Amino acid sequence: MKTNRLSVMLCLLLIFSSVQLWAGSLDSAYQNYVSAYKKYQNAVSANLAKSEIDAALSEYRSARTAYEAFLNKSSAADTSEKQSDSKISEFDSGSAGVDDSEEVGSSDSERSLAKLVAVLPAEIKPLVETLKRTSSKAEAAGIVASIEKYLEARPQSNHKALLQYEMASALDRLAIDVKKAEQLFTEVSKNSADKKIAGWGGLALNYLKAKQYKTQWSQVMAGKFAEMTNAFNSYNSSSWLAFPVKAVRGSVYLAKSVSYINTQNKHEDFLLAFESAQAPFVSNVETVFAQYQATRSEPENNARIRLIYNNYQSWYARCKIMSEARQSLDIQYFIIENDAFGLGLLGMVLKKAREGIKIRLMVDVRGSNKLSLKVMAKGYLEELAKLPNVKVKVYNPFQASLIGAITDLRRVISSNHDKILIADGRYAIIGGRNIADEYLVDAIDDAKAWRDTDVLIDSETVASQLQTAFEEEFNILKAFEIGKSLLGMTGYRTLQMEIGYAAMDAALNLRGPLPVTSRFSTQAVILKKLNDQLSGYKNMTGFNDFDLSENSHSCPVHILDSNSISGPRNDITENIVKYIDGSRREIIIQNPYVVLTPRAEAALKRAARRKVPILVHTNSPQTSDSFPTEAMLYRDWRSILRDMPTMRIFARVNEGQLHGKNFVFDRKIGVVGTYNFDFLSEKVNSEVVAAVKSREFATELRNEVVFDIGKSVEYHLATADKAEFGPGNVENPQKMWLIKFLSKMGWLKPLF
Fold it and tell me: Rounded mean pLDDT of 100-124?
């Protein structure tokens, strides 16, 4: 993959040279970069002394920085004029309370532009200020026309280049007239009277070109995906009885799969370079939200959304919307256990199916391996599949992964990580919770209960967006339909699901343990097990008083989706990176698994250079269930804090595991969903999140995270006043020896 990245970077150089972005010294910088990288890799491979590896790493970082500097130079560099650097405004420690007029984390170029606009003549200044903030195409087009008339009357205006730049920016940002924007940026970049504005124009022109390449990349990815899908469908429809035909079609699928993976890897490397070019032009986080909202055919600006941190309330919400469903249920989970909650949910599915509503259910074969005969001889899914109005699928069964293992090991471990519940195309719940006791029992009844987050959404428009996300995975080539069992030995599973529903219903409605009746007598053992489990949940008493709309917010909401490795969509990473680049005051990340990918790391470094505070809350070796991810954080935490001095890392201790996946940007945008901050979520698994534009919602989410931080320990480097404290210093860690052992295997990082 490293070779692919270098190859793609070389291709990018050739592309950009066509628009005169590169000077002759670029090749020298590139060769130094490659040479330093190889030297560092060789030092690691040869297991040289730490001092030698650190020296090689320092040389590589310097070469990379020098090389990336060339990537950011504009075509206006015919003169020796240096481009505006990325010096960052001084961070104001009181930024959390600043008003909207202050841009604590803005760059020098943003501040310089603001100062130039501030001294424009009174007759034109209000128009430019409105043009910079409007999201209306019609309003922007009208303002551009007015500015053009102003310049026609004043062809020698000292402000011409600035006004052209602002017009071009609006025409491009709102996709009003990209061709005209390109013409204006070109003219601005050739302005010899104002080198600084000319430099901005050149950078903007380069970014405009890069966006065109991005569109072309998307088209290529879609084409490769279609070729692979068609080849797989042809292979899958072939009978093993016609083995020669099956073998040939399997070979074609394998070739198309390899081609798709190679293209996918190159596309990811392009995006890393693209996001670096894009970063200086990312506006504030509310504009980032609005830009994606504008791509929706039916944007939702008044959804009702409720944040749910309480585990029992999250279960109440699921039970309420399922029990009240009258038309359809779409259910997609990574994990459904065969405990009181899992059997309760499956029993509800069975009950609603018998009422005649349409149901689609998909689970991940690894997360929910106790439900199907095809995996662990359990048979629950096969029983549900008998009903004519129920369609059941599993994602990525082992037999379907074998051919993929030849092309990419990640295809074997790829999972459907979505957690989606949609009722009647109106109510929806997404978030971090699976269906199992550790996610849904509250800490008041079980000190080891996990800390997680969901959102309950009431909106037909948002539900429709979630249905699209659901269907992209439900219909993807690695989703296999479950049929009726041929063994004829699974009928008792239906009875167990009935018991699961009845026992949970009795518990929720405070009727006590479910009695052993003659109907349930053959399943007395499992009934006792469920009753014993439910009797321990003494504070699960609020179901009847639970109001779906209580504490909800009315605000703009949209869904961001990411396909598994077998699909081309990754809206989540793209938008998270833009939100990081658009943040000016504060970035809060709460996530159980933090393994920084190149794209995430680059974005956070840019934020740190802007002096934006970054608060990260995650698990410690004491609370985490994932030793590999803890190993990678153990390996990298020092370099992360050194390279990102505005970041603080807090780790959960002395409580149940953290499992919520949440982001808050500038206290204006909240993001809640299934997306872990690691390689698996960015590159391998399917994920889904809700992005919410609401100060009230974002503040509520932030307060919950800050509350958790208050009970956590902070990792910090050694200073003159205090000793270092990191993952290795946490009390009572789980299998620290394994974490330290895995931390030496950095080459495994892309698998976590």
Answer: 72
More confident position, 497 or 86: 497
List CB contacts of 453: < 8 A, sequence separation 6 or more.
307, 308, 309, 431, 432, 433, 590, 660, 661, 662, 672, 701, 704
What is residue 666's predicted lDDT score, i.e. its pLDDT? 97
Residue with tokens 């299934």: 674
Say what the pLDDT of residue 193 is. Answer: 78
Question: Rounded to the nearest 5°, which phi and psi values hold at 310?
Answer: -70, 125
For the chain, give the percent of residues with pLDDT over 70. 81
Element (H, E) at 489: none
State the pLDDT at residue 407: 58
pLDDT band at 378 (very low <50, low <70, confident <90, very high): low
Q: Using DSSP bridges, classify how beta strands 479-481 and 553-562 pair: parallel, antiparallel or unpaired.
A: unpaired
- Decide: 585 and 98 in contact? Cβ < 8 Å: yes
Longest Cα–Cα distance in the chain: 95
Confidence label for 491 from pLDDT (cuts 50, 70 and 90): confident
Distance CA 575, CA 113 (A): 25
Q: Which residue type, as a one-letter code, is found at position 179?
A: K
Segment (H or E) for 392: strand 390-395
Residue 223 β-bridge partners = none
584 and 722 Cβ atoms separated by less than 8 Å: no
- Do 598 and 624 touch, CB atoms closer than 8 A? no
Q: Where are the alpha helices (DSSP H) in 72-194?
A: 108-118, 125-133, 137-153, 160-173, 178-189
Within 10 angstroms of residue 116's Cβ, the number of other Cβ atoms is 18
Whole-number Å distance between alpha carbons of 251 and 583: 47
pLDDT greater than 70 at residue 420 = yes
Alpha carbons 87 and 107: distance in angstroms, whole number: 6
- φ, ψ of residue 726 to 5 degrees: the values are -140, -165
Q: Is the pLDDT of residue 256 over 60?
A: yes
Q: Rounded distance, CA 419 to CA 362, Å?
A: 10
Closest CA to 678 of 582, 571, 598: 598
Contacts of 404 (CB under 8 A, 6+ apart): 257, 411, 412, 414
| pLDDT attached to residue 323 | 96
Identify which has the larger pLDDT, 701 or 262. 701
CB atoms within 10 A of CB 440: 28
Residue 191: CB atoms within 10 A of its CB come to 20
CA distance 651 to 590: 10
Residues 685-713: what's their mean pLDDT? 95
Residue 723 zone, left/alpha/beta (φ > 0; ψ -120 to 50; rest) = beta
How would residue 691 be classed by pLDDT, with cut points 50, 70 and 90? very high
491-508 and 524-535 are packed helices; what angle lies between their axes, rounded to 10 degrees? 30
By DSSP bridging, strand 300-308 and strand 328-333 are unpaired
- Confidence at residue 64, expressed as pLDDT on a 0 to 100 scale: 58
Rounded CA gap, 17 and 75, in Å?
Answer: 9
Burial class (CB in 10 A: 0-12, 13-18, 19+), 719: exposed
Buried/exposed code over 470-486 (b: 16+ C-beta within 10 A; e: otherwise): bebbbebbbbbebeebe
Phi then psi for 376, rounded to 5 degrees? -130, 25
Quote the CA–CA distance of 79 and 189 in Å, as a whole number.
Answer: 12
Does the pLDDT of residue 470 top 90, yes or no? yes
Rounded to whole angstroms, how far apart are CA atoms 88 and 612? Answer: 9
Partner residues linked to 266 by β-bridges: none
Give, as one character, the DSSP assignment of residue 76. T
Distance CA 22, CA 379 (A): 62
Which residues are paired to 435 by β-bridges? Answer: 336
SS3 287: helix
